Amino acid sequence: MIQPKIAVIGAGIIGRTRARRWTEAGYPVVFGVRTPDDANLTDYANGIGAARDTINDAIASSDVVLLAINGAAMEHAVTATAAALDHKIVIDATNNTGGTAMNSIALISDHAPDPRVDRASSMTSPSSGSLWHSNRARAAAWDLRSSPGISGTRPPTASHRRGKRFSA
Fold first, then answer.
1. How buried is 136 (Cβ within 10 angstroms: 0-12 exposed, 13-18 middle, 19+ buried)?
2. DSSP string, 31-44
3. Domains of the chain, each with CATH number or no CATH
4. What is the rounded CA–CA span in Å between residue 108 and residue 123?
5. What pTM, to 2 d.p., does this model score?
6. Are 90 and 112 in contact (CB under 8 A)?
7. Contact 104, 78 (CB under 8 A)
């Protein structure tokens, strides 16, 4: 089975943690950052077996994009990369604590032509009652989450949330 390539946009705590977990599970990961030659990031990426590239090139070369940047920077980042996010699985790990919405799902959906978007929090803990943004993103997130080294449970479907029996 060919593993999807994952672009991790941002190299802070969230981005690095996710990248490490995914490389441990065998996924090819590339950090997309403004300065891919940063010595600290180079050491970290080499240590976990991840690549480094510019943001646009990382997105272009990947099937899945994790956005793990400052929430206040999302509007600029999404408008600058919207076309590249077309038909990608996009995982929003941002928290815009000063904004009108805590996450950036609506922003991504409004600007990118056809992304499959989900929140990282629901990707890691679907049993917490959070809703999945789309069935396609939920299925894609489940595929990633069910890989070795990545914890999580089967995501609920809309019928499951209404009390009907879940069917795989």
1. middle
2. EE-S-TT-HHHHHH
3. 6-161 (3.40.50.720)
4. 17
5. 0.72
6. yes
7. yes
